[in-house]
Write a structure and sequence with these properties.
- The protein is an alpha/beta fold and 565 residues long.
- The chain is 52% helix and 14% strand.
- The chain is built from 20 helices and 15 strands.
- Helix 9 crosses helix 16.
- The two termini are 44 Å apart.
Length: 565
């Protein structure tokens, strides 16, 4: 370095070095937008993040970015050479020519920032289903990410300077290309460095929420978990219990420790009499952690099935995790189980605490005279030791009657009378994106079941769809997060679909191959199978083929990080 820069003024020299370092750091910060979004969509979990990178071919993403930085170097060098030519003796930097070097460095820096900006715009070209959220956690992440990028740039610069390959263009270009290729790992490194800070902040929030929840000794705390059905059951229970109590239930699918913590801290007031917390999990121990927060006195177990098998690996681990809610109940608490003549029934039988079983005739709650139609359901509700009474709901599908039974059993336990329970059932509204019936001006019926599907819910959805008159169209990408069993379940989905629909619009050419195989095995007409690259294309196909009287079901809508690139 000393041979190249003999005694030049410090200020322009600092500019010469600082401009490309800052520009490349800003550029990479912008270009990493899609990668950071993947990290956020995977709930800041490294295992899921790296799986998404493999699925979305992040290497191609980074190689293309590195190629753009290489092109930037070529442009800057061309500008430099066209100006200087042979006017300079060699490429030594002196006080006489250093501002020329700075000028060309500015050209390089501007182009570098523009690369990052346009790369960010390109990564956002497709409409995002779940928007990138600039939360407080994401702001903290970006501060650490920026510092990591700056530090790595400085370290690489120092390392390259030791090789004496020169300071002008070669170093910033090599640095940018190298870090572009390593960008996914740098995002992960920033997340790793942020982890201790996030754990400390979460611990403080967690303790604050726990304290707030326990400040009211009269507050009834209810936890709901299961592989599926927990969100619908939560909203049904909240609607029925609100006929007598002031109820706070976690909204939408807020079912993670941070999500539940946030709702408690922001929305729980001393006037609330009941808190209902939905508890989701992708790993063993997560329901236990949520139970430490909520301290439930009533626990509802809706179902145990093959959901999130990619992280749980086995049904046995799912079963163990869901039962963590029942383990957390006090000895005088209450466990409510849905009879499935399988895993949940087995868990009911092994439970020694106060408990209820619903869905089995003669148990604590069951239904008879069930009549299911596209307009809703009618049934006779039986609650133990009570006279049966007729109920009506606009909710679609027999499975929602099972969800109502669990909610009604808890409501009876908490002192509601028959009229309050009946009125609450009547007032239940469909949960958004869960068999939500939508009427369109063109005479087409739309069933929005776009929330995450699974082997059990997909069968129920097809049963609901088959009850509608007219031509039936399904739009689906199939199921994900089922680990090694995913292909098998999607093939079975296609087989079941063949007898329930007239037209299948499949989203994702690679992912839906097992569904296509299942359809064809059942003799489904090939001309009625349409395969779209993405949801937008699928909607265009639907719009081109539907006519008044048709029924269109949207079954599952994969989040952004599952879309095929």
């Amino acid at each position: 370095m000393s041979s190249m820069i003999p005694h030049v003024n410090a200020f322009p020299l600092i500019l010469l070095v600082a401009l490309p370092i800052l520009a490349d750091a800003v550029s990479l910060l912008l270009a990493a937008r899609r990668l950071v979004h993947y990290y956020q969509l995977e709930s800041y979990q490294f295992q899921g993040y790296f799986k998404t990178l493999r699925r979305q071919d992040a290497l191609t993403y980074c190689v293309y970015l590195a190629a753009l930085y290489f092109a930037d170097c070529l442009v800057a060098f061309f500008v430099f050479y066209s100006i200087c030519g042979t006017k300079l003796e060699g490429y030594y930097i002196t006080n006489d020519n250093i501002w020329l070097y700075v000028a060309v460095s500015i050209v390089y820096a501007v182009l570098s920032v523009l690369i990052g900006y346009f790369y960010r715009k390109h990564s956002m070209k497709q409409a995002e289903k779940k928007k990138f959220a600039i939360t407080a956690r994401m702001k903290r992440f970006y501060v650490i990410f920026a510092l990591v990028l700056l530090l790595l740039h400085i370290l690489v610069w120092l390392a390259l300077l030791q090789t004496k390959i020169g300071i002008f263009l070669v170093i910033p270009g090599t640095c940018a290309i190298l870090l572009a290729l390593l960008l996914p790992l740098i995002v992960a490194l920033a997340g790793l460095l942020a982890l201790p800070i996030e754990r400390l902040i979460f611990h403080l929030y967690f303790r604050d929420a726990e304290k707030k929840l326990l400040e009211n000794p009269r507050l009834i705390r209810i936890g709901i978990t299961g592989s599926y059905g927990k969100t619908s059951t939560k909203f049904i229970l909240a609607e029925i219990l609100s006929q007598k109590y002031n109820v706070l239930a976690t909204p939408a699918s807020f079912n993670t420790p941070m999500g539940v913590t946030r709702i408690i801290r922001e929305r729980l007031t001393p006037s609330h009499q009941i808190f209902i917390g939905e508890m989701g999990a992708r790993h063993v121990g997560e329901i236990k952690e949520l139970s430490r927060l909520v301290h439930p006195t009533i626990g509802i177990l809706t179902a145990v099935g093959p959901q999130h098998l990619d992280t749980f690996k086995t049904i046995e681990r799912i079963e163990k995790t869901k039962y963590e809610l029942i383990d957390a109940l006090p000895q005088d608490g209450l466990g409510v189980f849905l009879h499935d003549d399988a895993i949940v029934t087995k868990l009911y039988e092994k439970t020694q605490k106060p408990k209820m079983l619903v869905g089995l005739e003669g148990a604590d709650a069951w239904a008879t005279d069930v009549s299911v139609s596209p307009q809703g359901s009618h049934f006779t509700l039986h609650l133990k030791d009570w006279e049966p009474f007729a109920c009506t709901t606009v909710l679609l599908g027999e499975h929602n009657i099972s969800n109502i039974l669990m909610a009604a059993a808890v409501a009876k336990h908490l002192g509601l009378n028959r009229e309050q329970i009946r009125r609450g059932i009547l007032q239940c509204k469909p949960v958004e994106h869960r068999l939500q019936l939508l009427k369109t001006p063109g005479g087409v019926t739309v069933i929005d079941d776009a929330f995450n599907t699974n082997p059990s819910s997909s069968k129920r959805a097809l049963k609901v769809l088959s009850s509608f008159p007219g031509r039936r169209v399904i739009v689906t990408p199939g199921m994900v997060e089922l680990g090694a069993e995913e292909e098998k379940y999607n093939q079975e989905f296609g087989q079941a679909m063949a007898s329930a629909v007239d037209v299948a619009v499949l989203v994702g050419k690679r992912h839906t191959e097992p569904i296509q195989k299942g359809l064809k095995e059942q003799g489904f007409p090939a001309e009625n199978i349409h395969v779209a690259a993405n949801l937008d294309e699928a909607i265009q196909i639907v719009n081109s083929i539907i006519k008044p009287g048709d029924v269109v079901m949207y079954e599952n809508d994969l989040p952004d990080h599952y879309n095929e690139a």
